[in-house]
Amino acid sequence: MQLLKHLWLMIICVIALLACNSGSNTTSSSSPYQPTTITLPSGTTITIPSTNLYVPHDQTLQVPITIVGGNLASGESLMISATLTRQSQAVKTSNALQESSDLPLISISPTVISVSPHLTSTVYLNIDDSTGAVGSYSISMTVKDPSNETIIIVPKGPQMFILEHTCSTSDLQSCSKQNRCYAYVNPAIASVNQDGHTQYSAMAMMPDSPNNCYANITQQTAWSSTIENVATINSSGQITPINLGNTIITAGSNTYNINYLWSESSELSVVPAVPFPGGYGSLSVTDLSDITYSCSNGLNKPIYMMVNNATGILGQTVSGYANLNGYVVHVSDVDIPIVVGNTGYGEVRLYTAGHPFSLNVRACQDYTDFPMTLSYGGTINGYKYPNTVVYIKVID
């Protein structure tokens, strides 16, 4: 009997030990910044650094998405898209600001990326709250391989919260392990002409505090450049380019106990300051002010891409590109030839009217609040016309 009693006590101890060990191998869910990783059939992994994204009101946020090519990724081409759905205008806010019916703007850049086995690439989820939106949102993300039309929906997209209030000095001084504070650096990746200037900023966030606040801590951040003969950065976050090349801009320790997130550092490229030659004109598209996209009938008018006043390149061909993105529409066109006529003008029809770009009409109709974006640009003789983004209203 005594032996059975000791044996039973040993079993209880073993079970307790196993329970403790199993808990120690589990990733803590207390942090709001947990990465999400999906694996494609090719073995390629796509990692989003955080399941919760906090965006200061009227500010922008650039979130890197890391792609590592799998063993079968040779020749793989991926198109990543993201859409927003409003969850609430009251979560993480006190409704102190006037509620906006507009959604924040989101995009992925670049829209298409080539993947190679075991090589790491980065695309960026760009969030812009210049629309003045408030509240909370869910972000749905899909990954498409245009070569075989395979579409994978990210099973759990990140949640996004707009922070309305500005942190006070006392708020920031209260940053601790219990009252966590986070910060990120903008931009996460940048390029600057050799004779230009770029301004960096650091934004602090306190999503767990009663105020759910944010603050610009650019002046309280210690900035540094890894290669100072390429570019330097002063205490205010302003870049001075020196020579062509690449460097890493890093945000160091500051006066507050703040944990920097994924963008503690930023990649900066200094590129030649080549002026756009005279006579190359400008690149534009049809006036889109009265153009709409119907989920069932497509565009109400065709869209043209035009080169104007290009008197210095008569008879030559501009290579244009265009990306049309909506909730269910993802169309990319490259090497669009635009021949410049003898008057310095050339045009080509990008998209016809009356034909929907997607057969998924129902999904399109469910998300008409999500705008369609058209980004376009072009090159000729090694010179680039500026990339431009315009919006097209979506209707039933």
Mean pLDDT: 79
CATH class of the largest domain, anyone?
Mainly Beta
Helical fraction: under 10%
Could you tell me the number of beta strands?
32
Largest β-sheet summary? 6 strands, mixed
Indicate the multimeric state: single chain
Write the CATH homologous superfamily of the largest domain. Answer: Immunoglobulins
How would you classify the helix and strand content by structural class? mainly beta
As for the CATH topology of the largest domain, it is Immunoglobulin-like
Strand content: over 45%
Q: Which of globular, elongated, flat, extended, rod-shaped describes the shape?
A: globular
End-to-end distance: 79 Å
Number of domains: 3
Descriptive keywords:
single chain, 396 residues, mainly beta, Immunoglobulin-like, 3 domains, six-stranded mixed β-sheet, 3 helices
What does this protein structure show overall?
The chain is built from three helices and 32 strands. Strands 3, 5, 7, 9, 10 and 11 form a six-stranded mixed sheet that branches. The chain has a six-stranded mixed sheet with strand order 26-25-32-31-28-29, with no helix packed on it. It has three domains: 36-161, Sandwich (Immunoglobulin-like), CATH 2.60.40.10; 167-271, Immunoglobulin-like (Sandwich); 282-395, Immunoglobulins (Immunoglobulin-like, Sandwich). It has 396 residues and is mainly β. Helix content is 9%, strand content 48%.
